[in-house]
Amino acid sequence: MVGDTPTRRSGPASRRSPEEIAEHRRALRVAAVVAVTGYAAFTVVDLYLHYMVYPRSDVVRILALRTAGALCLAMDVLWVRNDRRSLRSAHTGMVICFSLSAALTAGMATQFGGLTSPYSHGLAFYYGGWAALVPSPWRRTVAVLVPIHLSYFAVLTGLITADPELAAQWSSRVDVSTFSVHLILESAMLAFATVSGHLLWSSRRQLAEARKLGRYRLTTPLGRGAMGEVWLAHDDALDRDVALKILRATPAVRDVIWLRFEREAHAASALTSPHTIKIFDYGASDDGVAYIAMEYLRGMDLHAMVRRHGPLDVRRVVHFARQACRSLGEAHRGRLVHRDVKPANLFALSGADQEDFVKVLDFGLVREPDSVADGAPDSAMIGTPQFMAPEQFLGGECTPAADIYAMGATLYFLLTGSLPFDADGDAELWRRHASAPVVPPSQRRGSPVPAALEAIVARCLAKHPVDRYPDGAALGEALDDLPEVPAWTDAEARDWWADLRLGPTLTPLQTPVVPPAAS
User: Fold this and answer.
1) Among residues 3, 167, 198, 240, which is most buried (max CB within 10 A)?
2) Which residues, in sequence order, are CB contacts of 475 under 8 Å at separation 6+?
3) Which of the following is catalytic: 76, 340, 356, 403?
4) Residue 340 among the catalytic residues
5) DSSP character at residue 378
6) Among the residues of 81-212, which ranges form H helices?
């Protein structure tokens, strides 16, 4: 962000992260809008005092001063909206505009009682509003509020002294005493706002520090699953956003959840395919919180895409599947089986010229086909039943052919919007996977599907592993050799995402974001 590079000077500002800077800018914008709105709304009070309490006041001058003050604050709204300005410049502009509006309020106070004007208490809105909307360290609060305080009382005393009629108030013990009480009360309010704003800022800072794992600052929760949570986090060391998968438990040596978590980090970090989600870092904090830092993806998983928009274009389905097979092909060559391939674990990116670029997520259940059990019981059924191969239901050895079956079920879902088999209960679901024939995708889709593609889906969903494609590379080759299916073009992908951003549920600047699965 231009102008927001932290400087080397001491104090809180030198330690602000980009997220803190952005949050502070938002707070300044909110405070500016609230200030101009509230200041303009007090026109009603001006008119009430003129007609009901001070009928001799000059209503034209009062309205002119009120309008000028509102314009000053409106200028501040425009000033703080410019991200190219440094925070120091934003604060300076706010101090000037707020102080000018306070001085103009002092001009109105001469019309409404002078030294005894109730408008002296209006300063409390400046003080309380700053403390509540822009909680800051005490030095910053003093730098902002003291000029406002001095502007009001200095201008008020100067105007009263210069006005022969109002100057007589200095001879009135009651008027001077009332003014002194106003000055003391507003000074106390300023002190209270300074202390309360500092305490609120300090508590928020402590909360932010508590939401850190090493160099990662947690910012926004993205998802929660049986295995843990996924957060959007900022890597302070490398200044980038990451998706941080967190296991909030103390990992025992034989704890199956921890072993799967660690397995995902090891397996995925060893894979280099651009279609496999990147693992940047993994480890555990001193208090037993394990984490994996992975790339933060912008786009939509294919399950959400079908649920929101219906069955996909046949060409687009093949486009997605080919990319997923490149990731699985590399894993299978390394003798790794994903074991949880499904539409929700295939993620289509959007942005940075990567529309419809697929990433395979969630290698938490990955396993070498002939590896020794890790103490947890892989004899138990592991995976997502609606996309599992028949042999996987029984907890037996999983080969790459199990991933191919899951890819077949995924292709079926993308083409039809429905599952190849569904049932109440895992036992009945397994029976259908193991023995029931598959309804051809074209019948479920309600429109033709190329025969060659239907044959590929049928072979993927074969009941016996030996009848399927042996691995992801073989399936990818079959999908590449589909002359009946034209290519899904980059231009079509860009148009689809552009239409989505401009749709009724999204603003032009929004992109659907779905986090990596928190299995």
Assistant:
1) 198
2) 321, 325, 328, 404, 407, 456, 460, 469
3) 340
4) yes
5) T
6) 87-109, 123-133, 138-162, 164-167, 173-210
